[in-house]
Write a structure and sequence with these properties.
It holds the Pfam family MazG. The protein is about 80% helix and about 0% strand. The chain is mainly alpha-helical.
Length: about 100
């Protein structure tokens, strides 16, 4: 399954279209923030206990991707194009930093 196929599937599950209500966008954004917080909790526990629940972390990362993919669909973005744009932005920042 490609990232674009996954996003289309996730949008279908979440009943997201390209013209979502403010309530639906808020729900998806809060879902993404909440799941990102769960990822942060795993990292915090790694620092505190010097042990990582890798399976739990991976599960939470999957939840982050779900909400991210739904938000991509809700904003009419193809995830693959967004990833390419993100990579280009990061490469540009690295290039700018190395030229300073």
């Amino acid at each position: 399954m490609t990232i674009d196929e996954y996003a289309a599937w996730a949008a279908g599950v979440a009943k997201v279209d390209e013209h979502p209500s403010n309530e639906r966008l808020s729900y998806l954004g809060l879902g993404l923030a909440g799941e990102s917080g769960e990822v942060a909790e795993h990292i915090k526990k790694l620092l505190r206990d010097d042990w990582l629940d890798k399976a739990g972390l991976v599960e939470e990362l999957g939840d982050v991707i779900y909400y991210w993919a739904c938000l991509c669909a809700a904003t009419g973005q193809q995830p693959s194009e967004l990833l390419e744009a993100s990579a280009a932005k990061i490469k540009r920042r690295i290039s700018e930093a190395s030229s300073r």
